[in-house]
Write a structure and sequence with these properties.
The complex is a heterodimer of chains A (about 90) and B (about 450). With about 90 residues, chain A is α+β, with helices and mostly antiparallel strands. Helix content of chain A is about 35%, strand content about 35%. In chain A, a hairpin with a 2-residue loop joins strand 2 and strand 3. The model of chain A has no long low-confidence stretch (mean pLDDT about 95). Chain B has 14 helices and 15 strands. In chain B, strands 1, 2, 3, 4, 5, 8, 9, 10, 11 and 12 form a 10-stranded mixed beta sheet that branches. Classes of the chains: A alpha+beta (about 90), B alpha/beta (about 450).
Chain lengths: ~90, ~450
């Protein structure tokens, strides 16, 4: 079965527990983390996770809601978007 | 990862912080196959076709909002111009009944506006066209969601001044029948109206279209403004390059969502309209881009140059991003729907005359501006005719959406709230062109139309 890849973008101030909280949620819902990278961009801490949702037990709207809740707890913005939009915007 | 953190951050920031959205997905629906000699059967078929397809549109659009994390702000319907399908039922009462049917179908499906209650009359008017125009004040008074257009000219037919001369009186009647003249915001008069424009109030499903097609209006004034603000010192060539690159990315997101939505709905993908469309949300202003260029307040000398630069860069970036650019694809400069435009009028930097000048280098024309309610109908017709002449002579679309507000004077303001925003009442030239306008007839097509 083909992978269903999405990017999770976490933006805010760096703090303990970001990766732990998000990856715990993903693990519990059978969403596999394919790759992680992070960078300081200007005043922002930015972390990107590439995840595969093909075996996910949750629909995308549920995952979005849960990630937004985690973001609120951590004081960060979390966005999840299908990889196609990044490919369309940044690759000709 | 095949994409860099910077690229992913840029896209996520557009949606999180810069109001990037798909401004509208408009499903064009052909209603010619609903025509029936029995009017009850006719309206039933119209209701069913619109309602069922609108429900599908909303459901599928919501799925894509979740998948891509991009809000699709408006989900709308455009239909075959109503004057065409009503040719054999051209009676006032039946037009009202048809409008109510459209309104009900839209409301029951959860659609905020349905466009196409209009006619193309550039060379002349049929009985149905006339009855339609006469019915408009009652249509706007008795429905909430029905939008109307009139195409009164093309650069190959010229402009039908007899049709233009009906509009001022119709708008003044509408103004009296609807709260703060709000009905006038649902009527657009065009020349060279595109048949696949997804934006209200002027959207309709042209007779050259297939049974159904999905058209997308992208947006992103906030995204463009953000990159302009990050590049305060560059020259105009570089500024154009920066805008082109940004609009390319924004348009690609529209192309992606549009194609996928059309496929999921099982309909033909129509066009991506690359117009920059403002809203009154903080930072989502087209005038704000002009001001970020370095114009103190939009309307100041230099503003026409700024709009020209912006418009050209938007077109170049959009054309590279999509093979299906269509609709209006200009820059919208409505007054009431753009916070910085509202402020510019209030502080005296933007007049109606300058607004007309700006429209000569962008599409759409004079949009969503309010004038005193006691403006003579001939003056309203003359404002419309001036703007439309720019379109005819320059081979482009222009349009007018004017709101004469009863009881209000220049300097007053009307707050419509929501998408329609706040309209400061603009001053109108007090001298008359009545004797010129009453000549009527047709403005001949310009010499530039003879290309065969």
């Amino acid at each position: 079965m083909e992978k269903e890849l999405l990017f999770i973008t976490v933006i805010g101030q760096d703090r303990k527990g970001i990766v732990a909280k998000i990856s715990d949620y993903l693990y519990r819902n059978d969403i596999n983390i394919e790759d992680i990278s992070q960078k300081i961009m200007g005043t922002y801490f930015v972390m990107i996770m590439l995840v595969d949702m093909k075996e996910s037990t949750r629909e995308i709207d549920e995952v979005r809601g849960a990630l937004e809740d985690i973001g609120r707890d951590l004081g960060m913005h979390i966005q999840i978007q299908h990889e196609n939009i990044f490919k369309m915007m940044h690759r000709v | 990862m095949t994409l860099s953190v910077e690229e992913i951050f840029e896209t996520a920031s557009m949606t999180l912080y810069q109001n990037l959205d798909i401004r509208t997905t408009t499903l064009g629906i052909n209603l010619k196959d609903c025509i029936h000699s029995d009017f009850t059967i006719f309206t039933d078929k119209v209701y069913r076709k619109i309602h069922d397809n609108a429900v599908n549109l909303i459901r599928e659009a919501r799925k894509l909002e979740q998948k891509y994390g991009i809000p699709i702000v408006n989900k709308r319907i455009s239909i075959t111009p109503v004057s065409i399908i009503m040719e054999t039922h051209a009676e006032h009462g039946k037009f009202i009944e048809m409008a109510k049917t459209l309104d009900r179908a839209a409301r029951d499906a959860g659609i905020d506006f349905i466009g196409g209650f209009g006619a193309s009359v550039q060379k002349g008017m049929t009985k149905s066209d006339r009855v339609l125009v006469e019915s408009l004040p009652d249509v706007f008074a008795e429905t909430e969601r029905v939008c109307s257009f009139l195409n009164v000219g093309t650069n190959v037919a010229g402009m039908n001044m007899d049709a233009v001369n009906l509009i001022g009186a119709m708008l003044k009647k509408t103004a009296l029948k609807t709260r703060d003249a709000i009905g006038c915001a649902k009527f657009v008069v065009f020349v060279n109206a595109p048949e696949d424009n997804p934006f209200m109030a002027g959207a309709y499903h042209g007779v050259g279209e297939g049974d159904m097609s999905l058209n997308i209006g992208i947006s992103g004034p906030g995204v463009v403004r953000s990159v302009v603000e990050q590049n305060r010192e560059c020259d105009l060539t570089q500024l154009s390059e920066i805008i082109k690159r940004t609009v390319f990315k924004v348009t690609r997101s529209g192309e992606l969502v549009g194609r996928e939505l059309a496929k999921n709905l099982g309909v033909q993908f129509g066009i991506v309209d690359i117009s920059l469309a403002p809203t009154t949300a903080m930072g989502d202003s087209v005038a704000g881009i002009i001001e970020a260029f370095g114009i103190e307040s939009v309307g100041a000398h230099g503003s026409t140059l700024a709009v020209a630069l912006l418009m050209d860069a938007v077109k170049k970036g959009g054309a590279m991003a999509s093979g299906n650019v269509g609709g209006l694809s200009g820059t919208f400069i409505p007054v009431s729907e753009d916070t910085n435009m509202i402020e510019a009028v209030k502080r005296g930097s933007l007049s109606l005359d300058k607004l007309e000048a700006l429209s000569s280098v962008c599409s759409v024309g004079l949009d969503m501006f309010a004038i005193p309610g006691d403006t003579p109908e001939e003056t309203i017709n003359a404002i419309i005719a001036d703007e439309l002449a720019i379109g005819i002579i320059n081979n482009k679309t222009t349009a007018v959406r004017v709101i004469p507000v009863p009881g209000r004077k220049a300097g007053d303001s009307v707050d419509y709230g929501g998408l329609l925003g706040e309209a400061p009442i603009m001053e109108v030239n007090r001298f008359s062109s009545k004797s010129f306008l009453k000549r009527g007839g047709r403005l001949p097509a310009p010499i530039t139309s003879m290309r065969n």
